Amino acid sequence: MPLRAKVLSSSSPTAARVQMSTKAAIEVFKPLEGDEPEDVVFNSLKSDMANVIIMKGAGEKAFCAGGDVAALALWNKEGEEGQRRSAEYFALEYKLDHLIATYNKPYVAFMDGITMGGGVGLSIHAPFRIATERTVFAMPETTIGFFPDVGASFFLPRMAGSVGTYLALTSARLTGPNVFYSGVATHYLHSTSLQSLESRLAELRFKDYDNMEKRLATINATIEEYCTGLPHDQPMLISGELRKAIDRCFRHNDITEIIQALRAEEGATKSWAEETIHTLYQRSPTAVNVALRQMRIGGSWSIANTFIREHQIADKFMKSHDFTEGVTALLIEKRAPKWEPESLDAVGMDNIAEPFFAVSKEDKPVELLTDADYYSYPYKGCGLPTEKDVEEQVMLGVMTRGEVLRHFVKGTRGKQGVQEVVKEILDRKITTNKDGKAVWVYDQE
After folding, report:
1. Which parts of the sequence belong to the Enoyl-CoA hydratase/isomerase domain (predicted)?
2. Could you say which of 66, 113, 117, 118 is catalytic?
């Protein structure tokens, strides 16, 4: 199975922190023919005794950099049987991601190190996502001729403004505190604090009658105890004029219009726009168009429908040219890929994304392990205030700028990063009326 994960012995003190109690899960996530010795994570039902589930990387370099896509490309070259095996791999991965996204116990992801592709699926849907100075986050799929999956159809369109679309199309990286500022992570800690935090979380005990809200609040307060400040030498990246430019350019529904908007950028964002155009032209034209369509419709999908639809899309990518070509060229043969169509300009007026979203009678939906579902993440208050949160407060029309800022700082008990993020939103999105009250400024179409 080409998604590698370290087995923890059931005798290990930490084993219960990574084991799922769902009976269906234990039947699915077990050694399979062809697995490597350290390919399976979940090997026991003992998590019924666990109060907190912790997911972390086995080493210092990465939390999880994704699956072995080279193996998938080789399978695809075998024809229909190999492509079917690839699709089955994604079905298994998405079942796990959905189980994590709807799991009924507190789940904490230590996003320490590289967190990309499949690693995002293991972390992004958790109520607690901890970034460190070593975190490198990206959805690099369009680089290799694939689409942002593992639930990206759910979480990226729900990011503020057009940030999610920008990350999906360009595979842009966020590092360290900027993973936190963007809302991808809920907390930022120095990596040296993780071991102590893990030990402290293992000591937590809950009453049987404590509801999830109370348990999450206790864990949130515990994590905050280990927050020792944000680095002063790494300012907020997606902010100010850059954030405005991202919203201006990536709000469009057509890749040609996005390119045109980028070419129209002047001043402080002109250089960024030129680099972004160059990046987009390096990506798979098919993948970029699919990702853009995905960002526009995924915001209306439920979490269960997200993984069902993504599996159908992944299946079509396994049967198409660009994924196998991209992986073979970039990761195996170390050469430039030959996309089909060859460039964004060659796409023309063809709607090359539509076939990937078409559902036929032959497309059997993947059977998820539970029927749990939702349209918005059920755990609020674990991370930083969102731009929507600030907008709703400003739209009450009764607060000054300073009062809005104090409202969020006080409401989150001085949570690290709140002042910086809310101040950036206010700088960019409000003006003041004659009474001194904050007024929200909406972008002009």
Report:
1. 46-354
2. 118
Q: What is the DSSP letter of 365?
A: P
Say how far apart CA 161 and CA 177 lie, in whole Å. 20
* 120 and 170, same domain (yes or no): yes
Structural domain boundaries, residue 420 = 387-440
* Residue from 93, 97, 112, 141 carrying the catalytic annotation: 141
Q: Which residues contact 164 (CB under 8 A, 6 or more apart)?
A: 155, 156, 157, 158, 295
Map residue 131 onto helix, strand or coil. Answer: strand
Same domain, 196 and 269: yes
Q: How many CB atoms lie within 10 A of CB 365?
A: 14
Positions in the chain short of pLDDT 70: 1-49, 445
Active-site hit among 57, 67, 161, 164: 67
CA–CA separation, 188 and 350 (whole Å) = 44
Q: Which one of 68, 149, 310, 322 is the catalytic residue?
A: 149
Backbone angles phi, psi at 312, to 5 degrees: -65, -40
pLDDT of residue 22: 45
Buried b (16+ CB within 10 A) or exposed e, 276-295: bbeebeebbbbbbbbbbbbb
pLDDT at 51: 86
- What 3-state DSSP class applies to 429? helix
Of 306, 337, 357, which residue is a domain's last? 357
Pairing of strands 107-111, 128-131: parallel
| pTM, 2 dp | 0.91
pLDDT in tens, 277-299: 999 999 999 999 999 999 999 99
Q: How far apart are CA 384 and CA 421, in angstroms?
A: 8
Looking at residue 61, what is its pLDDT?
Answer: 85
How many domains does the chain fold into?
2
Give 181-239 as a DSSP string.
HTTS-SEE--GGGHHHHHHHHHH----TT--HHHHHHHHHHHHHTT-----TTS--SS-
Residue 118 bears catalytic tag: yes
Angle between helices 418-429 and 240-250 (to 10 degrees): 60
CA 171-175-177 angle, to 5 degrees, is 135
Cα 342 to Cα 282, 283, 325, distances in angstroms: 10, 10, 12
